[in-house]
Amino acid sequence: MQLVQRLPHGVRLTPSGEIFQEYTQRIFHVVDEMASALNPSGEMEGRITIGASALLLETRMGALMHECRYRYPKVQVSLRQMPISRAYEAVRSGEVDVALVHGECTSGDSPAAGLTEEVLPDLEVVPVAAPSLVDAPDPAEALANVRVLAVDPDCASHQVLVAALREVYGIDAPVIEAGSMGGARELARAGYGIAMLPYESVGTAENGGGLTPLPGLPRVRLTVRALWAGRELARPAVSAVCDVATRVGREGRAKVSQPA
């Protein structure tokens, strides 16, 4: 049977492929449970797939992978970027073992139905732009044709920025999807627009990596959550990875909170 359909940019699963994926994931989970039960050393091992929203994937996942390799060398962790709105569905279907998302999930679903939700250290995002926009003598004129660069269309932070630009400067800025944090950063550096980016990724680098926070516009604290199958069904490796995610978030916040 054909399991994948080739597209101009990548592939997607066919209906048969989705069935195949569901069963193979269940098989791997059972194999991992058996390996843990037969493991005389008691050392954590297994496979974990983490789905993460774009801001978290590019901000915290590198540190999480490094910490997991150090603490649990026999746990294989793979990452997958996904929209916030797909978090519940991805965990329920077994597409990912853990979903790490920021802001509010837009599915309208309740995590109570078989899922566990844990609040992790929050993520502060700030409006950043090229220094030429920040230092302009007439900010309203400089920002007249500016665009708001959205990293994740499901994140509400760029809507907060749109409302603030309208209220402070009387500007109705269009929203452009940048696709990734790296794309938003490059477009902002080029003076194309303003992006809401994590402070822990721009606030500690010299000169913000060519970007500067815009004064007079709001910063936003986004709740970060981990979603996974209910605790009674969660594998030990899943809980271990969530603990690492909490530690990484706390260290990231502490780092940017330290005085210069």
Report the mean per-residue pLDDT as an integer: 80
Strand fraction equals 25-35%
Any idea what the radius of gyration is?
21 Å
Tell me the overall shape. elongated
Q: Strand count, sense and closure of the main sheet?
A: 9 strands, mixed
Strand tally: 11
Query: Helical content, roughly?
Result: 25-40%
Structural class: alpha/beta
Stretches where pLDDT is under 50 for at least 5 consecutive residues are 204-208
Order of helices and strands: EEHEHHEHEEHHEHEHEHEEH
Number of helices: 10
Distance between the termini: 60 Å
In short:
This protein has 260 residues and is of the alpha/beta class. 40% of the residues lie in helices and 27% in strands. The relative contact order is 0.18.
Summarize the structure in words:
The chain is an alpha/beta fold and about 260 residues long. It is about 40% helix and about 25% strand. It contains ten helices and eleven strands. Strands 3, 4, 5, 6, 7, 8, 9, 10 and 11 form a nine-stranded mixed beta sheet that branches. Strands 1-2 form a two-stranded antiparallel sheet. α3 (about 60-70) crosses α10.
Descriptive keywords:
alpha/beta; 260 residues
Task: Chart the SSEs and their pairings.
Elements: E1 4-7, E2 10-13, H1 15-37, E3 45-52, H2 54-59, H3 61-71, E4 74-81, H4 87-93, E5 98-102, E6 115-129, H5 131-134, H6 139-142, E7 147-150, H7 157-169, E8 175-177, H8 181-189, E9 193-198, H9 199-202, E10 212-213, E11 220-229, H10 236-257
